[in-house]
Amino acid sequence: MDQNLNAEAVTLTKTFCAGLAATRLGDLSVAALRAARRGVLDWIGCALAGSGHKTITTLLDVLQETSGRPQATVLGRNLRLGLLDAPLANGQMGHVLDYDDTHMGGVVLHTSSPVLGALFALAERAPVSGADFMLAYAMGFEAGVRSGRTAPGHHKGGWHLTGTLGSIAAGAAAGKLLRLDPQRLAYAMGIAATQAGGLQQNRGTMCKSFHAGKAAANGVLAALLAERGFDSTQEIIEGEKGFCRTYSDVAEPERLTEDFGNGWLIETNGHKPYACGVVLHPLIDAVIAIRDRQAIDPAKVDEIGLRVHPLVLSITGVREPATGLQSKFSMLHAAAAALIDGAAGVAQFSDAKATDPTIAALRRKVKPVADEKLRRDEAYACIAVGKERHEIHIAHATGTADNPMSDKQIEGKFLANAAPVIGADRARRAVDWVGALEQRADMHELIALVA
Amino acid sequence: MDQNLNAEAVTLTKTFCAGLAATRLGDLSVAALRAARRGVLDWIGCALAGSGHKTITTLLDVLQETSGRPQATVLGRNLRLGLLDAPLANGQMGHVLDYDDTHMGGVVLHTSSPVLGALFALAERAPVSGADFMLAYAMGFEAGVRSGRTAPGHHKGGWHLTGTLGSIAAGAAAGKLLRLDPQRLAYAMGIAATQAGGLQQNRGTMCKSFHAGKAAANGVLAALLAERGFDSTQEIIEGEKGFCRTYSDVAEPERLTEDFGNGWLIETNGHKPYACGVVLHPLIDAVIAIRDRQAIDPAKVDEIGLRVHPLVLSITGVREPATGLQSKFSMLHAAAAALIDGAAGVAQFSDAKATDPTIAALRRKVKPVADEKLRRDEAYACIAVGKERHEIHIAHATGTADNPMSDKQIEGKFLANAAPVIGADRARRAVDWVGALEQRADMHELIALVA
Lengths: 451, 451
Hints:
2 copies of one chain form a homodimer. The first copy, chain A, has about 450 residues and is of the alpha+beta class. Helices cover about 50% and strands about 10% of the residues of chain A.
């Protein structure tokens, strides 16, 4: 193997980075700009809702010991930490409730927690306009989702993509915000990808959202190093020992640049109406829709039959969750709690609900079946009560690209998430501020509102 | 898949951690204690020799911007950084010259840069005795090498093991130093492994040694989080989506605990006489031995024929190195420089030597052949000068378990590395101090000597 270490060489990764570097706000579509506004608002709400979680408190106990200089704001905590520490905290709090946006364009990636965790910290290093912020954010989607597409076996291999692809996305977005040239952007991607980690084995533990925080911090570090000329391979994605061949049994490197600029991936970002693993959403939609149609006494239910995509069983197979975090990966819990409460918000995945005996009893009546013919946003449910059968088919779960949440729904979700932490007035002002994001001169005004 | 999230469950990882937690200094062999002393001394020397490298200066430019509280010493730089930042710097400087110790017990792992990078920082958080430090250090070898053995396809897959296994080793060692119970040690391993990264594609770049620094920092963060009850899976190594199945095409999880306590892996640690990739060492031994036997005019050499283990070609295949870092992964460069200079130290792998036209001309005469029948510490060389043929066979390279450097050689290497940075007097005192490591009350005395 002769590695391509020649800095002058034209490589696929550098070609991609040249595209990132050349893209201007004017190149983005109206849909991309709208998606950026929605994404920023929804993510801040999720982070604020997660900011008081015991996972975050534990993390902050450590970071307050180890971090020094107050350089960047930890959302919702009236706290500032160092430039590499605040992204860890913000990235993790954005993902801790599993309530943050999800891109399903060939990969399942919670892009905003890594990317915005990184960008919000850098926006306090030097003033950043809303326009530059949105542009960097959108480029993070390009880097993360496209890198994921080069490695189709990546998720099956055991990786938590929000950790791995999230690192790459955060590094590229951070590098874009710092206006790195194509060469240094390639270094940023190389440094970010070589830090990428996150094992699916950690689903249901505090580590799952930690992956998002680490990805954000990895991205900031990568961009700051690259800015100073710290180098990496020129071929981090496509190289023989690079990302797509190491993290996946199948490699399609050319997908990194395929159709670049012909539409933007941020346009198809999805937002979650429910605070749990996205694969659960179609079945929750189904159970709630049946319940909305007619009153059902949970105590009399004989069976909740579910027909779902096979990923639901492999990702959310926890049978007896002991904690709220575990319950977010339990299809049995999601179905049972949704039928009893008619909801699947933050409250339905608390520690108390995870061990609630009524829910636990109903969980045992949930009978899931995998069906490879279903899409990932599709589900069938059949609830049996005595001789009655209540059936429904959900074609596209709420919050997916084919059935998106409305702007009004996103705003409602944000206010519900943010108001308890920063107050209704500030939450309202944040909605208005983000509504004109591309005209804002300094992101710090927004940060001050949600600190 | 029903993940085992029950905190009460007995898992392989927890059984292993129970072994780590129960081990006392008195359980270590005389050979293990000697290896610990040699390892600490050699590693400090390598870190000091690397402390002025431009890679480290670039890294420190960033860390001095982002790090705040001066909690832990950066070796050789008269600088203190935060508890998560100093390990990054020290771990990277230990490995930047590719001169640090190498364990070849089924995996190729530079254990000390991640592990000691982590432990030296924590030794400034609260006073630590030499005995406790050595014990934690030895347990780092157990965790790193044994985790590697569970994943036999790990290196072939593209990973730089010093980044991946180094994270696990550093997390376990740091957890041991903090005296975590088996449950929390398992969390520390889980948090460390879920951060593990490092791609071989980055060989020859600044990122290669960065992997070691990140591993050290990952390990400290993992242990500090675990200490406070931040949880992880109980089965990070053996789980269906855990380390050995995700990072390797072949999984042998039971090797984690196999024969635990029956001898210690630190005993077979190797120390490098040459400042470059360890697979090059047998061929360098060969070239220098021929040169020592009789005078050879490099200008008259027609060919340097080499027969080597296949890994030499796959790992050190750089043909035209442009930098010193790249030259450390060029078998052609190593053979040529060794024949001209009769040495393969730090000086032979500088930027200047990498582009020296005399060495470059001789590089083109090096003809390597892979031979699967050779061991990794074995090589044949045949130097052709006109009609003369000078041949040699190296059975075990210097510095490997079967042909170790003597204590005197390690001491000489340390003094050569350390004296230019901290002065001959301090270097001498460090040798004496480490010579009685297990009796020392506070590691901080040593840190003050080498700061």
